[in-house]
Amino acid sequence: MTIARCGSWWLAIVGSAAAFAAQAGQADIKPFAAxxxxxxxAKDASRLVALYGSGxxxxxxxxxxxARDFYDFTLAMMWRDVISAQHTATLSPVNEGNLKxxxxxxxxxxxxxxxxxxxxxxxxxxxxxxxxxxxxxxxxRADQPCASEGYxxxxxxxxxxxxxxLAHFKALAAxxxxxLRAQLMALLRDHKTGTATDRYKDASGQDMQxxxxxxxxxxxxxx
Length: 223
Known about the structure:
The chain is an alpha+beta fold. Helices cover about 60% and strands about 15% of the residues.
């Protein structure tokens, strides 16, 4: 309301300043994004942890010491993917709705102010990695919640069932016969995961969720 009364010239100045700030922020995030992608694709936990803020690093160190099973599982899930060289890195203010959902896992040592979205697509396959960010001494640092004791307890309680599901998906992938296996592997090499999932679902009679996990297992084996 106040800005509108100041006239269009003020709106133009404010708009230009906001655009300049956004462009500067995007340029500023590129070095951090490049380091994050390199550490992620190298599956180098030490390099990745070094990119986090001091509070998050303390949480990760505690998880590695006191909840190694949870720490190793989290890394293993991350390492199943590879970020394409043809990716884009975009900085945006933190989405409060997303933040509330993430905080069901634990609490942030420092509330993040921004999100880094790393988007990549190969063929029909696309993915987005969201990295929460804080600034520490004028430098961008990654942030993540410290897992609560309750969440880790729940994770451990669910481990037998989770391992049984994973064993089931692995068994289905291993039992897959030719020529279906070769056809699905060709689709995965062409980055047509959705088509491969539908093809497996139709051929096997499995439900969609099971089909997705079996195809994910097949893709993981093919990497």
